[in-house]
Design brief:
Two copies of one chain form a homodimer. With 552 residues, chain A is an alpha/beta fold. The first copy, chain A, has four domains: 190 residues, FAD/NAD(P)-binding domain (3-Layer(bba) Sandwich); 114 residues, FAD/NAD(P)-binding domain (3-Layer(bba) Sandwich); 114 residues, FAD/NAD-linked reductase, C-terminal dimerisation domain (Enolase-like, domain 1), CATH 3.30.390; 91 residues, Rhodanese-like domain (Oxidized Rhodanese, domain 1). In chain A, 28% of the residues lie in helices and 26% in strands. The first copy, chain A, has 16 helices and 30 strands. Chain A has a five-stranded parallel β-sheet with strand order 3-2-1-7-18. Chain A has a five-stranded parallel β-sheet with strand order 9-16-10-11-12. In chain A, strand 1, helix 1 and strand 2 form a beta-alpha-beta unit. In chain A, helix 1 runs parallel beside helix 8. Chain A is globular, with a radius of gyration of 27 Å. The mean pLDDT of chain A is 96. The interface between A and B is large, with 107 and 107 residues.
């Protein structure tokens, strides 16, 4: 059996290695356009940051063996042709036309099964000046080397990052470590489109606190300079700079597939079924070049990630070797470290869930990631999205210095299993003070969702409260914090009745007006609402997440 | 509705608070024998360690309000009688006889629903000298204060910890922080009975590296000294010391229930159904005093934890107030921080799974918790227990400096959802280099389990390999590491053929003999086995987890 693989970064080598372990007589050939193989593309920002010291660390196995063609031949029994470009698939003849980029020579390679693992490419907006020097994207080892060279020459003092997505933010931290002054320019109204606004505002505040300027709703018109970039012209003015990182997303490399007449989805990725087979039964595809599927909605999606590429590669290999394995889709799980913050999400965001037809309930719940008295406990601001009807957990998002990734992984598992918020609230998660509170953050957040579903109380988001204030609505803002807390962080316009006094002082409040109760995190706000409800108040709401979630 | 709650530490206050939120007209009275209420018992070792600085931190809400009777009255609308002992339940009359420990006065309190949240007590072995001073258990605030006093007087130089369970190990770290020389004495053949031997050996090695002496299979005969403890006499000799911590487990406080004729399980805990109702429909119980149920096997168990107490308390409160909620059981999830190691587990251990009738497959998989090139990536030694027939994940255990708690929480969720190892291997977990490898530890471990289930390779545990060597079995130990690795850490008696050379040098190996292949973590060992299998070898096994898991 002759297996031909196009692409040597993530999914391709995985497919080849797995095929060789399953079938020692398979003849596996891998074609890669670039010089480097099986490198950790996701590690590039950390290499630029200087946290990863040497290029080869990104290309080595954990025991320090460089993954070059000799390694692949000897260890993985794969013939690797690097610097070799795949030009055309002849599906009739089952041949691939390739070009040796060393010699310029073209030749055809036969296959029984072809695997496309052609990856993705950074989107290069057709803007004037995009080819100036010191305008970079971050996709290949060579990109990182070029950026490092500019840093080493101390010529990356003012950097504009175009695009506030994952790579833009990873590069923000990487370059800030070298002392660069950074401005993020984002065309959309906010950065991090994977996250809901309630949480993005806290990321924005944090970035500003780190000296990073964030310019949203700002479109780049051109890059300008004399050979080397000197400024970015936007629709909101010019930004002088000596380096630009363009990180406005990636697109699947589906050209080879498209030209061969394989089906390509509306996201631009190659269509595959759950066995990773394309519309041609002799051609499989895996990794960034494919179109994925959302596990909850079944909607096609394009979410390129090294983790998914590895899983898909294994599934393709098993099926090619006559086994049976399926990959049903993804949840859009993502995580990014931004300075000391962890920003992560899985499942559906609030709007996504609404569009998919769910009866959406949301929760904002800020809480420390460990027992609150344990030194080093750090805040996680959490948002839960759930469906009132089925009570299913649909999504989780986290922002903050605490270990939010753990809770997102639990949520990803629970969502995959179609668990309800009730199921999650009863999970037997690992508890000891250095690891969580007795009630883990996700359990507390799901209990709040249950209370809302059961009609026990009604929440109102900080953004809605802000709108009420701006509109001068006739609403009573009831702050039930202690006087000391109020003094330390006043909330103008609110009536302060500490929770402990409310059972005596509720008579000071009007029953006919809308009341919004809150405290620091709105646990006491919730108790206040319950006390008032018990006294016959029926227009009391609780501000979701309390003042910790307030960003205005 | 008059609700009477006995016990004011974890489950009791939770029940009362939740009832008040659900039903503002309920009259809730809580009776607590001790002085202190709602304190964080799990935090005591960290208070002894000095990490938690002040006693009141363990008794405060996150915003610093002490949870005393006034707090409970004003905020939670509960009447709290502390230093009040519950003496007898009159189920007929629905009355509780209590004794005021301040005045010695006895009185009866009526109830419509009674909630037993009487907690657990440390087991006090009836050994001579157990009442000497400086022999402590760690259960109450007063215990921690007494221990701190001895430390402050600089009189805790040599400490014997009796019992190598969770509290014993937490106290080991706590006292080592004060410079104490520590000996753990454990009656059983190993410490940490919640963990399998393959992993416990690594905890033992680590403790020894920290200067902690561990004496297993050692029974205490007596504590000796003149007023104050001076030595511990064991069946293996004497250990001089100036302090003893007895941490040999806790037992449920079920006396009150038992005397009232309520059903008590074989574990000694009060029997409750999934609604937390006891055998008397007007009496509920929650927390450490109850008998739990294993979610996988349905077997009764006694696993007292603050996390479970809170969940059970909420369920009891909802049902008492006419709602409907169920608590189906626990997985025995547990985590403990020991110096810089995280030791955690969930689900069934290997023997437990076998006894429950599963066709057990195990995996030992050591891997870094982050991308291996990311600075600060730390090792997690992981053991997976799964069922060959149903392919269900049954258990996960972790030991090491890496973030094992995250993977255990994912496993707890997956096991609760009855996921197969195939399901887990396809989970869309949060990936970025600071958080995990592209293939997260639990995904890799589950893929190995799948390979074993599918008969792709056969594993053999390091302990079995050690036994083969000791028995002088006619077996070839094939070390496929690089020469540099072998030089750095030789494995005597093994043949070294680096993996990259094996496709040429396999002829050096005998086909008729049993071969055990390995490397550092046995990924290359596995590939070696596949290469040899391809050459017609059919007696090749792979040493599970490689040399990282070797402890001999």
């Amino acid at each position: 059996m002759r297996i031909l693989i196009v692409g040597g970064v993530a999914a391709g080598p995985k497919v080849g290695a797995k095929i060789n372990r399953l079938n020692s007589t398979a003849e596996v050939t891998l074609v890669e356009k670039g010089e480097f193989l099986s490198y950790a593309g996701c590690g590039l920002p950390y290499y630029v940051a200087g946290e990863v010291k040497e290029q080869k660390e990104l290309m080595c196995t954990p025991v320090g063996v460089v993954r070059d063609p000799v390694f692949f031949q000897n260890v993985k029994n794969m013939k690797v042709l690097n610097r070799t470009e795949a030009l055309r698939i002849d599906r009739q003849a089952k041949m691939l036309l390739v070009k040796d980029l060393h010699t310029g020579e073209e030749k055809t390679l036969p296959y029984d099964k072809l695997v496309l693992a052609t990856g993705s490419s950074p989107i290069k907006p057709p803007l004037p000046g995009i080819d100036l020097s010191n305008v970079f994207s971050v996709h290949k080892i060579e990109d990182a080397e070029a950026i490092r060279k500019v840093i080493a020459e101390n010529k990356a003092k003012d950097v504009v990052i175009v695009g506030g997505g994952l790579i833009g933010l990873e590069m923000t931290e990487a370059l800030a470590r070298h002392g660069a002054r950074i401005t993020i320019v984002e065309k959309l109204s906010e950065i991090l489109p994977m996250m809901d606004t309630d949480l993005v505002v806290h990321v924005m505040k944090y970035l500003e606190s780190k000296g990073v300027k964030v310019r949203c709703s700002t479109a780049v018109i051109s890059f300008e300079g004399n050979g080397k970039v000197e400024k970015v012209r936007t629709d909101k003015g010019e930004i002088p700079c000596d380096m630009v990182i363009v990180a406005v997303g990636v697109k699947p490399n589906a050209g080879l597939a498209k030209e061969a007449g394989l089906e390509v989805g509306k996201t631009g990725g190659i269509k595959v079924d759950a066995s990773m087979q394309t519309s041609d039964p002799d051609i499989y595809a895996a990794g960034d070049c494919t179109e994925g599927s959302n596990l909850i909605t079944g909607e096609p999606c394009f979410i390129p990630l090294g983790s998914t590429a590895n899983k898909e590669g294994r599934v393709a290999a098993v099926n090619i070797c006559g086994g049976k394995d399926v990959f049903n889709g993804v949840l859009g799980t993502a995580v990014v470290k931004i300075f000391d913050y962890t920003v992560a999400r899985t499942g559906l965001g609030e709007e996504q869930a609404r569009k998919a037809g769910f009866d959406v309930i949301t929760v904002l719940s800020p809480a420390p990631d460990k027992a609150h008295y344990y030194p080093g406990a750090k805040m996680i601001m959490m948002k839960v999205v759930a469906d009132r009807k089925s009570r299913r957990l649909l999504g989780l998002q986290v922002v903050g210095p605490g270990e939010g990734d753990k809770r997102v992984d639990v949520a990803a598992t629970a969502i995959t299993a179609k668990m309800t918020v009730d199921d999650v609230a009863h999970l037997d998660l690992a508890y000891a003070p250095p690891y969580s509170s007795a009630m883990d953050n996700i359990i507390t957040a799901c209990d709040i969702a249950r209370n809302k579903m059961d009609g026990i109380f009604e929440g109102v988001s900080p953004a809605e409260v802000k709108a009420m204030i701006d509109r001068k609505d006739d609403v009573v803002l009831l702050d039930v914090r202690s006087p000391a807390e109020v003094q330390a962080m006043p909330f103008p316009g609110a009536i302060n009745i500490p929770l402990g006094a409310l059972r005596k002082r509720w008579t000071e409040l009007p029953k006919d007006k809308e009341i919004v109760a809150f405290c620091k995190i709105s646990l006491r706000g919730y108790e206040a609402a319950m006390i008032l409800k018990g006294q016959g108040f029926n227009k009391v709401k609780v501000m979701d997440g309390g003042l910790v979630m307030w960003s205005f």
